[in-house]
Design a protein that fits this description.
alpha/beta; 12% strand; 9 helices; 232 residues
Amino acid sequence: MHTMRRMSAAIVAALWIFGVFQLSDLAAAGGAGAAAMSPAQGLAQLVAGNQRFQRGASGHPNQDAKRRAALAGGQSPFAVIVSCSDSRVPPEVIFDQGLGDLFVVRVAGNTVTRAGLESIDYAVDHLGSSLIVVLGHDSCGAVKGAVAQCVGKPAARLPEIFANICPAVAQARKAGGDNLESSAIDFNVAGQVRMLERSPLFQKRIENGSLKIVGGRYYLKSGKVEIFKSGD
C-alpha cells in the first residue's frame, strides 16, 4: 500500500477514535436509511437497478427532500462500490440508486489504496454495508496507460496508480490473447477482489456470510454491468 504523509501515531489514533465515535453515534441516531440487506439482496438490487439503466428506465430512487431529511442523522449504505474515477462511470447512475444507498470509493484504475481500504472498512464495520463491488470498465485510461508504462521499470508518470495496476498487466501478458488491455482490466478487478478477501478486516464476515465481495465490469456503450462469477 502507498505511504501517506504521517502524523504522530498517537494523534492519528486519537483523531480516528474521535471520528469513529462521532460518526457511529450519528449512524446509531437513526436517520440511516435502508434496513440492513443481506449480500444477496444488495447484489440483486444493484443488478435490477443496472437493468433499468440499460433500458433507459431509471427510477432515480431516494433523491427527494424526504430522503435528504431522513439521512441528515446518519447513513447505512447497503453496498460499497470501488470504482474508477472515470467521468463516464458514476456508480449511483449506472446502478440507479439514490442518496444513502452506496458508499463509493473512486480512484483511477479502481485499485485499493491504503486510504481506500480504511474507507471500505469504515463502511463495512461502522455503517453496516454487506456487499463490496470492485467495478472495472472497458476503455479504461488508467489501464491503457499502465500497459504502456509497465515494462520492468518505475513509471515516469502516475507512479502510484500504475504500480497498483502493473501486476494485472503482467498477468495479462503471461496469459496471452488478442486484447492485452481488455484482459488486464479483468485481471485488475480480480486482483483487487482477492486483496480485499484476504484482508483480516473482512475475513470473519466473509466466513459467516454477512459480507460478500465481487468484481464486475461496466460496458460504456451498452450500459451493462457484468458481475464476475467467483473464481473469474
